[in-house]
Amino acid sequence: MDNKSNETDITIDGFTAYILIICSNSTIVCLIWIHKNLHEPMYIFIAALLVNSVLFSTAIYPKLLIDFLSEKPIISYPACLCQFFMYYTFLSSEYVLLSVMAYDRYVSICKPLQYPNIMTKTTISILLLLAWIVPACQILVAVLLNNKTICSFTLKGIFCNNALYKLPCERAKAITIYGVIVMINCVVFPLLFILFTYTKILIISYRSSRDVRKKAAQTCLPHLLVLISISFLGTYDVIIVRVQADLSKTARLIMTLQLLLYHPLFNPIIYGLKMKEISKYLKKFCPNK
What we know:
The chain contains 9 helices and no strands. By secondary structure, it is mainly alpha-helical.
């Protein structure tokens, strides 16, 4: 009885968290959409990042909560592959979007006179499309490579992440090699690019006036905090697959929910509090009584 009560409480908390994620991210996106002075590349990329957070959570939360209420959670292999595809597509897209935002800040701070000519509407549209299409295409190939006869019908995890690779009868080396290639393309390269651009920004800011340093700190710090947050999530995803066999179902759910809750809620909080223009409209939207 106690276990059943605990599971129900966790499920209610998870559902509340999912609603909070949708509402908090959607609020910032709506503010950016409504106010024309926020129709700048930096804010458009922030809105795209927050939309990505909602899509990421939607790929996990609904099925996760339904499964936890079920006595015997079941998912078909094609549906599991679909969840795998959505989870890693949106996770990879976040790294790419953060690298796009780093490029935007680099051009804005290091090449301010060229900024309007470089960051045009066409450029913004292309960058946003690439941020979602490139990861989606690469993850789709991984899904197709993994669509083989399975011998194990028990997934040692609470949703379809890279534990899925343990289900087929034979794990081909091609899948392992391709997985490393995707990780390098969608995670390592964007991280290196972000570090490179922010190093350049730091050097230019140090040599410039106090106003430039202040602008760099105000606009770049939130992006770096979000980068640290998503890096924790990526690291957790790799580690949990190796240790989850020794964890109970409830322990796995609590650990996963904490991280899946922490990151999607972290984004709107950071951008809502740290970005001056967004914070200003947010205070008007939610006035203190």
